[in-house]
Amino acid sequence: MHTRAVKLVFLYLLVASTAAKKTLDSDIRALVAFKAAIDSASIPSWSCLASWDFSSVDPCDTPRRTHFICGITCDNSTTSSAARVTALALDSAGYAGPITPRLADLTALTLLDLSSNSFRGPIPPSLASLPSLTTLALSTNSLSGPLPPSLPNLTSLQSLDLSQNQFRGRIPIALHLMSSLNHLDLSFNALSGALPDLPSNLVVLAVKGNLLTGALFRRVFSSLEHLAVLELSDNQLNGKLGGWLFALPALQQINLSNNKLSALEVWKSSTLVAVDLSYNRLQGLLPTNFSLLPLLAALSLRHNQFWGPLPREYGQMVAEGRVRRMYLDSNFLQGNVPPAFFKFSGTLTGSVGDNCLRNCPPTLSFCMPPQKSAASYRQRLLAL
């Protein structure tokens, strides 16, 4: 009985000490400084930040008997002398103001999510000193300025989403040092220049809607054995698209639409499911090698300058039901449409309209918009 009583007392003291553990003072000061930097008028009464009052309540107090605090996750484990803030994920309440550099004092932080608000100004370079940060989500704000050159110091980072802001300048040249990064989204900013060397563990690369220029070089992508999604549409990329890109071993989706690409080479791939190269300056004969992509279900080459016949291999892809979306409209294709195009079964969306094709009835939606005149095709040949 005596032994049992001792054990009960020990357990009581252990629970009491765990519950009473206080948040590290520097973490509390960082949270207070973060809230103080935000425009008070942008903090709704129902929001997470409105619940932050640490004058009498510890942010990591557990259980929270008297005061609810949202947006903060803590580590109350007994291995440390004080509780630490490990995640800061705010609601989309329209918070406005700068991001204080004091957040770098939250040295145990693994997740920082301030997305879908109205934060403005630059990313504090000091955030790159957070040693355990794995997720940084600042998308859909009004952040601006160049990306901090120190950003690649976040070697533990796995997901970085800075999309839909106002960042400008070049992507940091040392980006490839972010060896843990697998998801990178810099879409819809004003980033310029060429793509630098990329982290080898990337699975998703999205930099659409920027001002990127230059060609895509094999050296930049050669180590990306895990890349599944490549989204670089709506930029100013030019030059030749090499066949090596299609041969990346894990690549499933390519979207390079709305660029200035002028030449195309297609190598055999066993993984590609969707390819969108529309609204470029691609010219020449349609590559028949697209028919060698066994999983290809969506292909868009519309609004380019392809000429010559419509390959029968494309008709076979349609007739066999392998392709569900095929857009070849607004080029300079000529001759007859292969009969296989009219033998498809199932659902097919797409168009071969606005070319110079014969035997494509305008009553068929796949043949719309109407074909160009033969004179348009002759003028195109003279321009070559």
Average predicted confidence as pLDDT: 90
What spatial form do the alpha-carbon principal axes imply? Answer: elongated
Low-confidence stretches: 3-19
Distance between the termini: 99 Å
Notable characteristics:
384 residues; alpha/beta; Leucine-rich repeat, LRR (right-handed beta-alpha superhelix); 13-stranded mixed β-sheet; 6 helices; elongated; disordered N terminus; repeat
Task: Provide a compact summary of the structure.
The protein is an alpha/beta fold. The chain has six helices and 25 strands. The protein has one domain: Ribonuclease Inhibitor (Leucine-rich repeat, LRR (right-handed beta-alpha superhelix), Alpha-Beta Horseshoe), CATH 3.80.10.
Question: Your description of this structure?
Answer:
The chain has one domain: Ribonuclease Inhibitor (Leucine-rich repeat, LRR (right-handed beta-alpha superhelix), Alpha-Beta Horseshoe), CATH 3.80.10.10. The chain contains 6 helices and 25 strands. The chain is an alpha/beta fold and 384 residues long. 15% of the residues lie in helices and 24% in strands. It is found in: Membrane.
